[in-house]
Fold this sequence. Notes:
The protein is mainly β. It has helices spanning 4-9, 194-197, 356-359, and strands at residues 11-17, 25-30, 35-40, 45-49, 55-59, 66-71, 78-83, 87-92, 102-105, 112-117, 123-128, 138-142, 149-154, 162-167, 174-179, 183-188, 198-203, 208-214, 220-225, 230-234, 245-249, 266-273, 278-284, 290-296, 299-306, 314-320, 325-330, 335-340. Strands 1-28-27-26 form a four-stranded antiparallel sheet. It has a four-stranded antiparallel sheet with strand order 2-3-4-5, with no helix packed on it. Strands 6-7-8-9 form a four-stranded antiparallel sheet, with no helix packed on it. β2 and β3 form a beta hairpin.
Amino acid sequence: xxxxxxxxKVLSIARRSCPEExxxxxxxxxxxxxxxxxSCSNFTxxxxxxxxxxxxxxxxxxxxxxxxxxxxxTSSDLLYSGSADxxxxxxxxxxxxxxxxxxxxxxxxxxxxxxxxxxxDMLLCxxxxxxxxxxxxxxxxxSRKPAGxxxxxYSESHSDDITQVCFHPRDKDRLASGSTDGLVNVFDLSRGxxxxxxxxxCNSDSSASSVCWSGANYTQLLCLSHDEGLHLWDLGQLDTxxxxxxFSTSDARSLTLLADGRGVDYLVGGRWLEDTQKLLVVGxxxxxxxHLMECDARGLxxxxxxxxxxxxxxxxxxxxxxxxxxxxxxxxxxxxxWKPGGEELTPGxxxxxxxxxxxxLKSRPHKKHGYHREKKTA
Length: 378
């Protein structure tokens, strides 16, 4: 099997898509049959052909900032999107431009800043912003109920904005959540009540921005923080006396990672690549250059730098294992396809298309807390 470094070494820009209206590209999801969904800072969702990047559809309906998009695992014609407008909506990609086929919501005071869909497509979960300076909630729905059947909430495990909820890729009952309170919680939903369901609490000592499952059997958890910290934990050690932490740094910017002896300016995110059994972490420079790194017990190791693509901060990426291709999107409004031996039809790095309205869409300030629980912590 070809290694990850060899796959990344041959990447070059094959396609570039820029919408007419300047907008940040925030998140990207891939449908196995060939569609890309991209969430934008103007509250719209764009559908693209994954090979040509040609836009083939658009959805409008949300009136608050989007917190992600994901295709159904068992019903890939359904696209889910979450928003601060207090709804999770379901779109039928066989009918681009139509209204949402389904809408899930809870209390009118709830603004969602994260959501995810279980691997069985049966359960939806959204994480709220802090409500009335006191509580934040994990909201659960049965996705099979056309009226948006609300199942219940967890309200005791986080004390601030829940910035990420992430279902386990194989276990429909396993859920991880991260928050600006500095905690990353792991739940077994089959246990029912919140206190019983909480298996572990890992402390990131800072505001958690993203969480993803990793490792050969998805027993590891990667957490990135808003101040560019990175923590990799081994949940397989929960019932042992061994430490959970595999690797941790409070500031990845301080690490010497690049050929010029410098570090990255920010971390975009991380993904476990099943085809190569590697954890890929993407970092960037403020000029738009990207740096692809492997993360393991030894730390972060640079595999490949991608230059000449983006003109400013990159917000999202996605690895297409079948096509051995990388998709990236950012604040310059550009969606790029990087492929082996790719030759861009219209070469040349585009200028940033940032607009005044887009520049005002900064993330709200996040407080840095660190809380300890009685559960085993990292």
